[in-house]
Amino acid sequence: MNRQTETSEKKLTRRDVLKMAGIGGIGLLVGAGGMKTFFPQPTQAEPSASAAASKGDYIPFYGKNQAGIITPMQDFISMAAFNLTTSSLADVRKLFQSWTLASARMTAGQPVDDEIENPHLPPVDTGESIGLAPMKLTITFGLGASFFDDRFGLKSKKPAPLVDMPRFNSDEINPDWSEGDIVVQVCADDPQVAFHAMRNLARIARGKAVLHWMQEGFQRTASADPSGSTPRNLLGFKDGTNNPIASEPKLADEIVWANSAESPSWMTGGTYMAMRRIRMRIEVWDRSSLEDQEATFGRHRHSGAPIGKSGEFDDLELGRKDSTGKPLIAPNSHVALAHMDGKVKILRRSYSYSNGMDVKTGQINAGLLFICFNRDPRKQFIPMQQKLASADRLNEYITHVGSGLYACLPGAREGGYIGDTLF
Ligand SMILES: C=CC1=C(C)c2cc3[nH]c(cc4nc(cc5[nH]c(cc1n2)c(C)c5CCC(=O)O)C(CCC(=O)O)=C4C)c(C)c3C=C
Ligand SMILES: [Fe+2]
């Protein structure tokens, strides 16, 4: 792709522009003249040679909806929240323009911007993904409730479903791992590709936003399970069996995508993400019997089938009783409560995490980075979590330690940028 650009005065190459700015990195360039002065309108970045060699590995960045929501789950996640350090809406706009361009390039397997190869300047791209395929990289942006405070004059634009997350029973939420003005979810089939994307987005944000929290996560890789069976969480159970099939547009409309009935028009094509960092008491779990573990979830560990059944995808049938009249699936089991009479649904997209050892206790510091998407958390995630927090048998083994609710922006069209329906 020829990425030479032109101003009204004279022809400038990208390299000239970078030299004039004195340092590499898109984010550092947009300050004075604004991005449109120097840069061509963003277009879909072309996949790199390595991407072309592995066609299926490339997920386009531009589209009606952001990728990374109904996209089949990749193997790794790097997730972070940023707090804005600027109070200028123009700066926020520039940040999202720069992030959009960089994301379109990185998801196509390209460096964050063209390299300048000046030995006296830092490289434009941090380099750790040079030569790597795109690995189905997706980058998804959302806005927290604090984005709509007094700073940017957008208070009246706050969507009604973007409420403050309530406090739930036995929450032990650490504010250092919660909320944030902006959330960025990076997913990829390679951990280094995911890390590289997040790192470069943080670099671009310098001067406008700072990292507030960051968490990496994983599931089993596709090469460990070529059959693509339901992945298991760190408690050893298949997790995701009864997730809605997001590729069915009618279901996605009902469950995921913001609807004009409750959301403003600028959210059309967007959704709401609930995030919970849930620490697992792994050592306690590992000492509990198989019978107790299965009763906790209401499913068999090996097959993933509902208790008393043999097929993973068999109907739950919560009314079934044993010969003594006792429900086969305990009413306080995780699935019995989360099922919500089959009427309330969310799209789960969670990853396991491990943060090594807790130095205070010597225990493994691991759990679930719970992520779900829903069209109105007031009617979906929040009542569900209220029910789980009050009675779930699983609560003996888990603690919610981080939390966030975010409005995930609609996708950007080529030539536009993420957030352009709002600011
Ligand atoms: C508020 C929403 C939910 C939270 C928080 C949550 C935490 C959590 N879940 C598991 C493991 C499993 N969850 C399963 C099913 C399931 N979970 C939720 C919601 C939340 N889970 C729903 C809506 C469902 C589906 C219910 C149904 O209708 O059947 C299962 C069973 C298999 C499956 O369907 O995915 C497991 C296992 C953990 C470990 C956890 C917190 C650490
Ligand atoms: Fe669950």
TrEMBL record:
GO CC terms: cell envelope; cytosol
EC number(s) per entry: 1.11.1.-
Domain Dyp-type peroxidase C-terminal: 230-412
Sequence ranges assigned to domain Dyp-type peroxidase N-terminal in this UniProt record: 66-219
Cofactor note: Binds 1 heme b (iron(II)-protoporphyrin IX) group non-covalently per subunit.
Enzyme class: oxidoreductase
Hydrolase listed as a keyword: no
Keywords in alphabetical order: Heme, Iron, Lyase, Membrane, Metal-binding, Oxidoreductase, Peroxidase, Signal, Transmembrane, Transmembrane helix
Family annotation (NCBIfam families): Dyp_perox_fam (TIGR01413), TAT_signal_seq (TIGR01409), tat_substr_1 (TIGR01412)
The protein's name: Deferrochelatase
Species the sequence originates in: Brevibacillus panacihumi W25
